[in-house]
Each structure stands twice: as C-alpha cells, then as structure tokens.
Amino acid sequence: MEEAELGCSVCHERYDENRCPKNLGCGHAVCSLCVQQIINSGRKCPECRRPFYATTAAALPVNYPLLRLSRALASVNLQRGQSETPSPAPGPTRNQNDAGECAAHLARLTQRCMTCRVWVCRECLLMDHTLPPEGACRLLSVRQAINEMKKTHVETLAAKVLSLRELKASAATQGGCVEANRRIRNAVAATLQAAARAELDAVKELDTKKKEVEDKVAEIDVWMQGLREKESAIMQASTVRELATAALAARECVTTTEARAGRERERQARFVGTQLRLGSMDLRGSLQLAKTMYVAHEADDGQRWARLSVHDSLLHLHALQSSPPPASAPLFSFSSVRSLVARECALAFLELGWEGHSQGRVYLTMMGDSARARQFLQLCSGEAGPCYRGTCMFEAERVGGEGEIIRGGDYENNDGTGGAALVEGVATGGEHLHEAVSGLLVGAHSNQRHRLAVFGVILSPWSNHKTDTAFGAVTSGLATLRAAARHRPVTEVLVLDCGLMFPL
C-alpha cells in the first residue's frame, strides 16, 4: 500500500492520533480535523460526493484498521531512521508530558479523564470518553491533572489534620476535666478525714487517667506529623510515578490514621467523669464533719458552685451560682450529688421573700419523669444556665375565690411574656390531665412556646374544672404561696433561693 493512501484525501496528511480517520458512511474516510469543514460546507464525501448526515465530527465512527496501518507505517519509518542514527548514551529517561504507555493500544497516555479517573491515550479517548454536551467526561493534560490531583490529595490531608486537631482539642478538654476533678478530690481528701483513704485512691486513679490522656494527645501529634510528611511528599512529586508513589503512601497513612482516630473516638465516647459516686451514707458521715459543703460544676461558660445543706433529714442542693465557696469548705462534684436526685417524684424547693425578708419555703414533688418536670428541676438547680432564683411572681388571679392561682418563672423577661422551653417535648395532653385542686403545679399550654418554662400553683380548688398542664404538687408551704398572692404588688414577691432535695 502506498504511503499516500494512508493519508487524508483533503489535507493529504497521514493519519495519526491527532488526525484519526473518520468513516463517512460511503466507504471513504477523512481525517478528524477536516471532517468538520466538510460538515459545515454541505456534508458530502469529497471523493464520491455521497451525502452523509452527521452534524458533528464526534458522531462519525473511527476507521481503526486504517489508523493501525498508519501507525505501523510510522513505526517502520521510525525504525529505519533509528538504524541510521547512532544510539544515544544509556541512561534513565523521564517524560513529564505523558503518563506512560497505554496497555490496550500501545500509545502514549497523554491525558487524564478526571470524571472516569483514568489516564487515556488518543484511542481510549475516541472509544470510551465523550466530552460535553454529548458526554460528561472532563479531560486534562498530564501536567494539569498532576496539579489537580496534588490539590485534591493536599485538601484530603488538610481535612484529616483539621479532624485530628479537633480530636486533640477534645482529648485536651477531657484532660482539663480530669485535672479539675483531681483538684476537687484532693480538697475532699484534705477536709474529710473519714473518706480520706477512698478519695486518695481516686486521686491516684485520676493521675493515671490524666497520664493516659496526655499520652493520647502526644500520640495524636505524631499522627498529624505523619500526615504532614505525606503532604510534603505529594507537593514535591514532579512525575506521575512520584505522585502515584506519594499518593499511595498518603492513602495508606490516611487509612491507618482513620482507624486509630476511630479507636480514639470510641475511647473518648466511653470516657465518663471520673468522680466517684457518693452514697447517702457518705454524705451523712461527711455532714457530721462539716455542717456546710459545696459542689463544683464544670460547664462551657466556666465553673460554678452550689451549697449543700440539711433540713428535716433532707439534703438540699441549692441553685448554682458564680461566687466561689470559702477556701476551707469541703467540695464534691455536682454530677455525683445531682445523680442522687430521684427521676420519679423528684423533690424541689422555692424560697420566697418580700419586703427584704424571707417569708418561707415551698416544697414540691414532681408527677413522674415528664419533660415539664425535668425542665422545672433544671431551672431550680441552674444546671442548664437559666435559673428561677431572682425571678418574681408576676401574676395572681382570682385571689380569694375559686381557682385562685399565682404564677412565676419567667427567667427571661420577669413579667410573664418570656420563659422559653429548655427541654424538648414539653406538651399538654391526657397524661397531664388533672382536677384543679389546691397545691397543683401547672405550666403554660404548648401553643405558648415563648413561655413554656413559666409555672403556676393553684391555691384553691376550682369546681368542675380540669387542667392538662399539671406536672407536680406542693407538699408544704401552701400558706406561704397564699400570702404571696395577697401581697401588693405581687411582683415584689421574689424567689430568693431554689434547688433540689433528696432524703439522707
């Protein structure tokens, strides 16, 4: 076959990867660069003038036998030329413009399909990869692909480093909790001689846990350093081989780090406050040594403290406040004492006052473990932030008559217009339905979402009336509430103190 027959009949250039032969349907072929001109000028074969109907060059099939013959002839000519040219000195070659040879077509891999994530030669492109608008493939040169792959790998590693930073911060926070707990336990050990041995054992355990956390923080630093080293290796890669080697090492490092980070997250999830739980006998014995004790509560907004006192064989956990206790006061952790409050029928108290004096305490019990009850307890202890202490009784209705009621608890505006819910699921309905009797603790209806934390106490029975927001009852102090409802103005009645209770 003559060499001229392996060329385009229009431009007379020999077919190759850039000028692949396109079948026109009549048996003749034209190179891919000239066929678009023919389409634009009438879509007829330049040799037999037979029309064809393709509208784009990509729609015409490639004449692969003709393309292979052209490649074979080019290879023969190249071998002839090499036999006449002295061989170059041996040594390593490095081509930064391709990614090696295509195993399927024995052609150079000159591009990368970023959609299919494979290196492609010209023939791979023609057979399997279609560009928009007909297809969705996105092709980049070797150099562009390397740069984009570098960027992707670096972003992945940076995201992992950020994740590890957060993991490290979480571990460091746990270390801070352990250290704060350790200080509290040391104070207990120094003050309460009866419990000294148990508390010193707890200190030793906390020291061990603190060392464990510090070791974990250092270990996470090593993981982060490993990721940074892999990032540096990727950035220094200049060839496909170097990038592939660095990317493989990075993937293995990321996989290993993810497994280690997963185990660390499981460890942190299992991490619980290391305070020893206090039993009632511990508290009873401690109170014999110290008439007044305090608890410390660690929260996002800092540390707060609450006083413990005993009245009528009941331990009172007063509301948290920011003022620290005396240096000599025994300290326990808030959570260890709070856990002793019953979930069912929990007890709480409100201390009311006006005219500058305390007028008495009101003791209440919750009706089960409802969302309203949990919210009321949180606002009595102040553990969630807001607290009933310092608020006023903002309204008294039907004073002296049936269904007399006094209302308070607006921790936001202190006038009955606020007091949003702190707990999800506060609702009204059949489970709260109750006769309107004296001493019944009730809340706002669920359609008043802006004031679901306010409460009311019914002071006299209301015949033939029921309420669907009941969640507790007064056990003592109803006379104090009736006196408060008759005080004018009722807004001068303040909650001087509040808190939770449980029997010793």
UniProtKB/TrEMBL annotation:
Keywords: Isomerase, Metal-binding, Zinc, Zinc-finger. PANTHER family: E3 UBIQUITIN-PROTEIN LIGASE TRIM-21-RELATED, PROTEIN CBG20824. SMART domains: RING. This is Peptidyl-prolyl cis-trans isomerase B1. GO terms for molecular function: isomerase activity; zinc ion binding. It comes from Portunus trituberculatus (Swimming crab). Pfam families: zf-C3HC4. Residues 8-49 form the RING-type domain. The keyword Isomerase applies. Gene3D superfamilies: Cyclophilin-like (2.40.100.10), Zinc/RING finger domain, C3HC4 (zinc finger) (3.30.40.10). Residues 78-97 are annotated as: Disordered.
